[in-house]
């Protein structure tokens, strides 16, 4: 969906981006020291079954977005980390805009940002981020 500047990639499906984003969030917000996460934690974060996570992980491994060790822990590849960082930044920018400029309640803003992040072009996202920065709001990379 997002053409995130990772050259030669075909965009992932919305679901693929959601799984990648969940792995990214878990790995940066308290994953293990090596950045790996448990698939059960991904399932819990997304509210899906472990079987659904395993199916998604197979697709993400085929596209070289994630790696999984023999104990089942999942890490993002460099390619996956770059892709996920773009999706997560878009999510945060949209959530911030919805909350600060439109007065949307935080929980609703988070849910709607998750929907919107998959359909807006990279150009539109960059324009939104530039707008927020002109308002004095930092959207970290």
Automatic annotation (TrEMBL):
One of its GO terms (molecular function) is transition metal ion binding. Keywords: Activator, Cytoplasm, DNA-binding, Manganese, Repressor, Transcription, Transcription regulation. It is found in: Cytoplasm. One of its GO terms (cellular component) is cytoplasm. InterPro entries: DtxR_MntR_Metal-Reg, Fe_dep_repressor, Fe_dep_repressor_sf, HTH_DTXR, Iron_dep_repressor, WH-like_DNA-bd_sf, WH_DNA-bd_sf. PROSITE patterns: HTH_DTXR. Residues 12-77 form the HTH dtxR-type domain. The keyword Glycosyltransferase does not apply. Belongs to the DtxR/MntR family. Homodimer. This is Manganese transport regulator. It comes from Thermophilibacter provencensis. The lineage of its organism: Bacteria, Bacillati, Actinomycetota, Coriobacteriia, Coriobacteriales.
